[in-house]
Amino acid sequence: MLLKLDLNDPRPLHEQVADAIRQAIVQGDVAPGDRLPPARDLADALGVNANTVLRSLRDLRDEGLLEFRRGRGVSVLSRPDPREALRAMVRDLLHEAVRYGYRPHDVIELIKEIS
């Protein structure tokens, strides 16, 4: 499983790691039932602290994507629904837009300009 982080991304590292793992699951790089490499190995490959990876794995477990089993490590439970994942991102975008004083209509217009 090849994961990459964007060092220019302003989001916390644990969110970036969780997104990278989530994307690997969505793209089929790891399938339901597959075991993930140990957190320490993922941390070494990504150049981050093992606790950062563990926090990401716990977040994904809480989302229902991963399962922790004593003696068996971390396994993929299911693939995320891409539409639901996109919906969550749109919700975050709208929340951020409101912080800057924009309304949902303004965000729609901005999307139309870009696309």
From TrEMBL:
HTH gntR-type domain mapped to chain residues: 11-79
Cross-referenced SMART domains: HTH_GNTR
InterPro entries xrefs: Tscrpt_reg_HTH_GntR, WH-like_DNA-bd_sf, WH_DNA-bd_sf
Gene3D superfamilies with a match to the protein in the record: Winged helix-like DNA-binding domain superfamily/Winged helix DNA-binding domain
Keywords per UniProt: DNA-binding, Transcription, Transcription regulation
Xref: Pfam families: GntR
Identification of the protein by name: GntR family transcriptional regulator
